[in-house]
Amino acid sequence: METAATTLDTSGLLCPLPVYKASLVLNKLDPGQVLELICTDPGSLADIPALVRQRGDRLVKAEEREHQQVFWIEKAAL
């Protein structure tokens, strides 16, 4: 798996903040770079894959940890 260019920890934040903050960070990344996104909002399991599809990015990996969801999102080429 690609190494994350940056990590965003949105622990404790509820929808829509994890989606909003992830979008802001992804907008600053170069195509092909990976964002590691850490969430604690259970709604993120549906919200983050929807964000990735909407933006055209690629969900490299998603995993559930104890009280956390972790997503690796690769920014799409322009």
Descriptors:
4 strands, alpha+beta, single chain, four-stranded mixed sheet
Structural write-up:
It contains two helices and four strands; from the N terminus they run βαβαββ. A four-stranded mixed sheet has the order 1-2-4-3, with helices on one face. It has helices at 17-28, 44-55; strands spanning 6-9, 34-39, 58-65, 68-74. The model has no long low-confidence stretch (mean pLDDT 95). With 78 residues, the protein is of the alpha+beta class. It has one domain (6-74): TusA-like domain (Translation Initiation Factor IF3), CATH 3.30.110.40. The longest helix has 12 residues, at 17-28. It is globular.
Total strands: 4
**Mean pLDDT, rounded to whole units?**
95
Radius of gyration: 11 Å
Point out poorly predicted stretches.
none
The helical percent reads 25-40%
CATH architecture, by name, is 2-Layer Sandwich
Which geometry do the CA atoms define? Answer: globular
Number of helices: 2
Could you name the CATH class?
Answer: Alpha Beta
The rounded distance between the terminal residues' Cα atoms is 21 Å
- The SSE string, one letter per element, is EHEHEE
Strand order of the largest sheet: 1-2-4-3
How many discrete domains?
Answer: 1
Largest sheet geometry: 4 strands, mixed
- Say what the CATH topology is: Translation Initiation Factor IF3
Let me know the CATH homologous superfamily.
TusA-like domain
- Sheet/helix structural class: alpha+beta
Strand content: 25-35%
